[in-house]
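Holo prediction — NAP.
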Amino acid sequence: MLAARREVTHVETPGRVWPGPPLARAAGNLAVTGGAGFPRGGVAMVVGADGGIGSALTRAIQASGGFDRVLGLSRRSQPSLDLEDERSIEAAARLAASLGDIRLCIVATGVLHSEAMRPEKALREIDPAALAKSFAVNATGPALVMKHVLPMLPREGRSVFAVLSAKVGSIGDNRLGGWYAYRASKAALNQFVRTAAIELARRKPEALCVAIHPGTVDTGLSSPFARSGLAIAGPDTAATAILACLEGLSPGESGGFFDRSGERLPW
Ligand SMILES: NC(=O)c1ccc[n+]([C@@H]2O[C@H](COP(=O)([O-])OP(=O)(O)OC[C@H]3O[C@@H](n4cnc5c(N)ncnc54)[C@H](OP(=O)(O)O)[C@@H]3O)[C@@H](O)[C@H]2O)c1
């Protein structure tokens, strides 16, 4: 059941008006509407709120009505958050905490390709600048979000910090090779999640810090590499599943790496 519309903060980005149309399908499946997963109220924040999956997550969280404030952050939001600018991350974390208890934070940013870089097919294509960019956006930036947001999570009650990782970051599951920068930076991200979760559990035993593989999702990040025959989900479908997955995880599962259906993935 949908609760009354809650306030959405700082989610306007040029060219896009938030909120979008209500997501009846998403909201109907979400226990963030007040089920056991989260205490009602508090703040939800999405980092990368203008990305393909991040925007769908922001809409679905907002449509759920389960939080008092929904903070959508990106390089174009006001205030802006740039993963390569620690001060902007720190300011965003402080802003979120000033609005209420942070009950949910999802980092939905990432880079696989750009005009200046494309995934490597072979060792000879490894480029230090592309490696540095991949690590800055996929690993260091999310680690800095952990650094500033995890201490702000409420001391009591459930809260969830999740980063979107990628199954190709799994070392145990790597059978195809290639994509060195993306794979290695996501593997580093997974290690940050695991390590931060151990530290978090000492102070906030009800809080979770997890890595989620969203599956192959139709976004700008994946579109150049979509192969026919591959099951590709729409961003709204993926967002619904990710939120249901997060709700279903218990504190004992903090520090894990899961796909969007909640299946544990190998490191
Ligand atoms: N799509 C898939 O099939 C798939 C599969 C596995 C994992 N994932 C993971 O899912 C996550 C979301 O991907 P997506 O498919 O939604 O990609 P996307 O549509 O390209 O979104 C990526 C987001 O990252 C943001 N970003 C990049 N650099 C940033 C920086 N320095 N500071 C702040 N934000 C920055 C982008 O913001 P700007 O608009 O400012 O560039 C954009 O909002 C990523 O971690 C990706 O690795 C996706």
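READOUT: The first strand starts at residue 7 and ends at 9.
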